[in-house]
Amino acid sequence: MKPSSISSCKNGPPRDLKSQAAEDYTSEEYHMIMSTNLESCYHFSQLAYPLLKSSGNGNIVFISSVAGLVSLHQLSIYSATKGAINQLSKNLACEWAKDNIRVNCVAPWVVRTSPVQDLLSDEEFVKKVESRTPMRQLGEPEEVSSLVAFLCLPVASCITGEVIAVDGGMSVYGFEQ
To answer: CA-to-CA distance for 176 and 112, rounded, in angstroms?
Structure first.
């Protein structure tokens, strides 16, 4: 059986993600974030391309973040990598469609996972997140994984080049009235 999907190129929140002003990043920190979040996904996709092409029906689903869709306080470099992954998804979807390879991206907001466990123990942080989320809830891992699985199914064969936020409405939320 030929492989047909990369169900996820994991590049979610690193355990050492820290909020920091853009001018305070060192060159080393900048390169580490770019390498971890963007370059790894790009190169992994390059390596997988021949296998996905030979399968005749390939799928790539990147995991990005709403940080690539909206501004998040003092996360400029992290956010830039997520925005780049979003655009990479769109470009690869167009370039590789001729080979019947679909490329999509899932962009979660705050999801109850181990990398953010310390943040979730801070009640003020959770209240702030919920106040910016119209659904007033944090995401659950199953909500992200179910979408990734769906995007890899034949029933999603016409979906490519999309960045789908799993964020309870956070990325489309305006001023509260």
So the answer is: 25
Of the candidates 165, 28, 57, 122, the residue with the CA atom closest to the CA atom of residue 130: 122
What are the CA-CA distances from residue 62 to residues 10, 26, 47 (Å)?
7, 27, 15
Residue 113 sits in which domain range?
5-12+22-170
The answer to the question of residue 155 being in a domain is: yes
Instruction: Report the domain count for the chain.
Output: 1
Is residue 109 in some structural domain? yes
Report the CATH number that the domain containing residue 109 is assigned in CATH: 3.40.50.720
**pLDDT at res. 15:** 47
Length of the chain: 177
* Residue 109 near residue 165, CB atoms below 8 Å: yes
CA distance 48 to 53: 9
**What pLDDT band is residue 55 in, cutting at 50, 70 and 90?**
very high
Q: What pLDDT, on a 0 to 100 scale, did the predictor assign at position 114?
A: 87
- 177, part of any domain: no
> Catalytic one among 25, 42, 49, 78?
78
Clarify whether 42 is annotated catalytic: no
Beta strands at 101-108 and 5-9: parallel, antiparallel or unpaired: unpaired
Torsion of CA 166, 76, 134, 176, to 10 degrees: -160
